[in-house]
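Something for you to look into today, if you have time. Could you write out one complete protein record for me, on any chain you like? Leave the record below and I will have a look.
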Amino acid sequence: MSGQTLTDRIAAAQYSLTGSEVPRAVCKATTHEQTAPKKKHMEYLIQATQETNVNVPQMADTLMERAGNASWVVVFKALITTHHLMVHGNERFLQFLASRNTLFNLSNFLDKTGSHGYDMSTFIRRYSRYLNEKAFAYRQMSFDFVRVKKGAEGAMRTMSVEKLLKGMPTLQSQIDALLDFDVHAKDLNNGVINACFLLLFKDLIKLYACYNDGIINLLVILSCSFSKG
C-alpha cells in the first residue's frame, strides 16, 4: 500500500480541527504507508517531549490508541515511534510509560490481511514484549540501560553490590527480550521492519556495553572480597 489512506487523512484532520497538534503528529507518524515513520514527524514529537506545556500522557495515550489498530503497519509504526521517543525524547516520556501498570497488550495481535500481515504480526508481538520489558527495567532501576553513562565512570561500573545484584538480572531480561525478536535478513523486506531493526540493533550495542560494565564491577567486587579474606 502506498500513500496515506483516507482513514489516515480523516484521523489527522480530526485532531487538526480540535487544535491537538501532538496527537495529529502521532497520526502522521503512524499512517498505513509501508515506510518508516517520517523524520519530520519524529523530530516534532521529540521536541514536544521537551516542552513543559505538552501533555505527555495524552501523547502516550494516542500512541496506545494507534497500537490498537487492526493494521500491522499502523501498529508497528506506533511501536517504532514509542521506541524512538523512549531513546531520543525527554526522559519524562519514558518515566510516564514506566509508571503505567500496563503498556502494550499485543501478545495475541494478528493481522489476517494477507501473508505479509501474518508474518509481521509475529514481529509485532515480539517487539511489544521488548518495549514492555524496557519500560519495566526503567521502573525497576529508575534509569534506562540504553541511555545511562557507560565506561569507567558509568552507572553499572560504579553501582553498589546490592543494586548490581538487582540490576544484572533486570538487564539480562531486557537483552533476552530483544534477542527474542529473532529477525533474519529475508524478513527485512519493508521500510517498517527495517526501522524497527535499526532501533533494536542500536539498543543491543548499548545493552551489551552495560552488561560488560556490570560484569567488570562484579569481578572487582569479588576480587576485593577474596583479597580481604
